[in-house]
Amino acid sequence: MAQVQDIMIVMEEQEVECLQRYQNLTFEGAFCEAAWDSFLCWPPIAAGETLLRPCPLLDTMGTIIGENPHPEMLAVRSCDENGLWVGNITNFTRCVTNIQELYPNSWTPTIIALIVVIGSTLSIITLCLSLFIFFYFRSLKCSRLQVHRNLSIALLLNLILLIVSSSPILTDSSYKHTEWLCKSVLTLQMYSSLASINWMFVEGLLLHSRVTVHIFKKDAPFKLYYCIGWGFPAICIGLWCLLMTYHHNTHCWAGYGGQQYIWLITGPMIAALLVQDRGVCVYHL
């Protein structure tokens, strides 16, 4: 957490430095003022012009460590005729270009993506078989299987989105070139991941309640379970989307892992896993 806060402090200092650097630079007529997009500093330009800058190189925490040397990987920012940055965002489309287009002789990304797709497909088949059994054989209806069904659905959604996110490496077309579609896929992927973890937590919660609190009760509090499994992740993801839209509105939310808002997603995940792990340890004791 401290490391993330340090990164945010550095980024705020970079923004102040960027704006101060160009505060005295103006143009005749309409122009766009200097802008900081959390990665690059954009100088003022006259209305109707477009700027190109090398894409930033980021480490695993989203910290800028240099510029991408590839000449085709460029970030774009345009100023409209009224002196306003178009969309008030930087277009990083060229920064997330298909890896095969840049490194056609490298098979590693393709092999990794192929393994992910094959493994995910096999998992999807087994999950579909499980869901068929859960829904077809009504005699198996019970609280635990109802939780299993929801967990399977969450995992199924996550695997489908994992295949979708791997598709640009295996095909020539890429959904990442479409801003709203790219963000929608990322949002759903985050939601399904958090929902999967939460339904695993509900599995442990149900087991705990069965051997302690509700040992003689047949009905489980499924309204609470649905709120934990589906509702709470929706709230977290919704808040995350709003914060990212207003404070880090880059193309496809590039570099989202380095923003402090990611803790709205990873925080609940870590908490659920720690609580569940603690519960497992207690049962073993």
From TrEMBL:
It holds the Pfam family HRM. One of its GO terms (biological process) is cell surface receptor signaling pathway. Keywords: Cell membrane, G-protein coupled receptor, Membrane, Receptor, Transducer, Transmembrane, Transmembrane helix. InterPro entries: GPCR_2, GPCR_2-like_7TM, GPCR_2_extracell_dom_sf, GPCR_2_extracellular_dom, GPCR_2_secretin-like. One of its GO terms (molecular function) is peptide hormone binding. Residues 17-99, 112-275 form the G-protein coupled receptors family 2 profile domain. It comes from the Eukaryota. It is found in: Cell membrane. The chain crosses the membrane at residues 111-137, 149-170, 190-212, 224-246, 258-275. It is a multi-pass membrane protein. Gene3D superfamilies: GPCR, family 2, extracellular hormone receptor domain, Rhodopsin 7-helix transmembrane proteins. Its main location: membrane. Belongs to the G-protein coupled receptor 2 family. This is Uncharacterized protein. GO terms for cellular component: plasma membrane.
